[in-house]
UniProtKB/TrEMBL annotation:
Name the record gives this protein: TerB family tellurite resistance protein
Gene3D superfamilies, alphabetized: TerB-like (1.10.3680.10)
Amino acid sequence: MVTDSNVKNLVKILIGAAWIDGVIQPEERQYLREIAQAKGLATDPEIKPWLYELVPVQPKECYGWVQEYLGDRPSIEDCVSLIEAISGLIYSDGDVAIEEARLLTKLQEITKASESTQAAHTTLLKQIQKLYRRWVEVQN
């Protein structure tokens, strides 16, 4: 579920991703400002200092925002959506820095872990359903 808080966190992550290599490229700057404007956050007091490069974002902050955004058990959809959003920013300047590639790789690892966790939950759920059906059959 997308909330105003999630939208704000997503914009923060995008700003952090632009800063992750230490420099915001002109194309990234334009992309961020368009996104912030479209989401109604261009004048937000929390976002504005980062958006207008008054305060740099450290990689540690960006990764913290990613963790906060995804939570402890992210859905595959949330992970993929975040990868797509960050990819749009990263590829906007036609150059992928090593730090940016690391961020995308980390997100792909989280997605894979989430997929395996969901697969395990699905298997467990199916086993419980079988047991329940057997119990219902025995009761009849």
